[in-house]
Amino acid sequence: MDQEAVRALFDRQLRREARSWEAGVRLEHVGHVVRRVGPKAGWNGVVWSGFDGLSNAAVDAAVAEQARFFRELGREAEWKTYGHDEPADLGARLAGAGFVAEETETLMIAPTAALATDATPPEGIELLPVTRPDQVGLVERVHDLVFEDCRSSVGHEVRGQLERDPATVPAVVALHGAEPVSAARLELHPGTDFASLWSGGTVPGWRGRGIYRALVAFRARVAAERGFRYLQVDASADSRPILQRLGFTAVGTTTPYVLAAAVTAGRPGSAARGT
């Protein structure tokens, strides 16, 4: 895999030319940024910025304008930066405008045809493809147990995917009997070469048993069957070695910068973070 070429394709298709088919969501190309604007229950933020060659003052003005926009809108917003974005000190400029950095992850990409997809779950675990709205609660239950910040919008995202394409498999749940112990989301990007892995989480007590590996393999098979050439994931330090063994390559880093929703009418705004 030509890492530079594939990363450039990712930047173009999923960031600079990003599109959305979700009702109530729009991708706005404003000046040197592309921002995603939707309901509070969904993900809002900046997916791409093209600041290369701009003066420091112009960059700061563009950052301040996006902060002002989302504050006035009453949305929590995430500015998704990548290690190769310009200028090199973009993170510091975002911090100066009120955005708070979260954990840096590794941008990993793999050709779906080259991925190891034969991983199976451990004994006693059954994988359930989420294909109906009444199954989404299983995914949310896992996230309630795994994630502490309560900003996950996974339920909103999965329900939206099922509404747009009832034939899709937007998530998969690992069940021990009737109890969900792990879950993860798959997003297919129509008109692009990419599918993405999101929202993987396993409840304490079930980690380290190969469940995550099986969830990745399952989603990779779905993406390949739907004709997507590449699979992309923002990998945590824990998941990176597993993904590398499955065939993913690290092509960069990504750091989310989050802007809290403005306080309006005496009450804090609330917007769920994208996954």
Automatic annotation (TrEMBL):
What name appears for this protein in its UniProt entry? GNAT family N-acetyltransferase
Q: Where is the N-acetyltransferase domain?
A: 125-270
Q: Which Pfam families has this protein been placed in?
A: Acetyltransf_1 (PF00583)
Q: Which organism is it from?
A: Streptomyces beihaiensis
Q: Extract the signal peptide range.
A: none
Checking InterPro entries in the record gives: Acyl_CoA_acyltransferase, GNAT_dom
Question: SUPFAM superfamilies in the record, alphabetically?
Answer: Acyl-CoA N-acyltransferases (Nat)
